[in-house]
Amino acid sequence: MTAQLVALSWDALDPAALARFWAGVLRWESVDDPRGGVALLPADDTGFRIRFQPTDAVKTGQNRMHFDLTSASLDEQQATVERALALGGRHIDVGQTPDDGHVVLADPEGNEFCVIEPGNKFLAECGFIGALACDGSQEAGDFWSAALDWPLVWDQNQETAIRSPRGGPKITWGGPPVAPKRGKNRLHVDLAAGGELEAEVERLLSLGAERIDIGQGDVPWVLLADPDGNEFCVLPPQ
Fold first, then answer.
1. Domains of the chain
2. How far apart are CA 110 and CA 89, in angstroms?
3. What is the average pLDDT score of the chain?
4. pLDDT digits 0-9 by tens, 100-137
5. How far is the C-alpha of 115 from the C-alpha of 55, rounded, in Å?
6. pTM for this one?
7. How many helices (H) and strands (E) are present in the chain, helices listed first?
């Protein structure tokens, strides 16, 4: 049995405050996380929780991952934007043009996300979190398709996307040029091994992952990086 995507983990200067922001935007329930910090439990078919864990590192540069939130109407798009701003978010400029229909925002710690306009066909079958959009290569998309056993639902011009057969958000990679990595990512995914932990780690290594050490010490999980150098954790079976 392949590993399961169980969480998106977020480094935060103030985990409780950042969790409150995203709980308000997504309308998910907040709970204590067994690994420390705070977690949000999905209220839909997203399929993974969101963890907020403490860090002393200040965000530098643009994240390699961000949420694309969907809208059924212009009124709903505006309501999502207004809700996010009221909770402490802000408008930011990442190079979008006035003709772009999506709205680019940042949460209180500067993490980027987009509120997509209605009528977006690519995200039409997805829920409120339409996509976890990644700045990354085709090799990364192929790796994660094999790692999670999720089919490729888009594979054109070095842009790739995968989606769980059970539904939920798409995970997308925009292809080249891929921005240089600047230290540890603010966001990373946590996988739960479907069987024996080391056997799953060996499978992921054979697909193109590599072991890394960022000073994690003696922990019950294994830290790996995908072909683009993005960190992820493989946890014992849950």
1. 4-173 (3.10.180.10)
2. 8
3. 94
4. 899 999 999 999 999 999 999 999 999 999 999 999 99
5. 27
6. 0.95
7. 4, 16
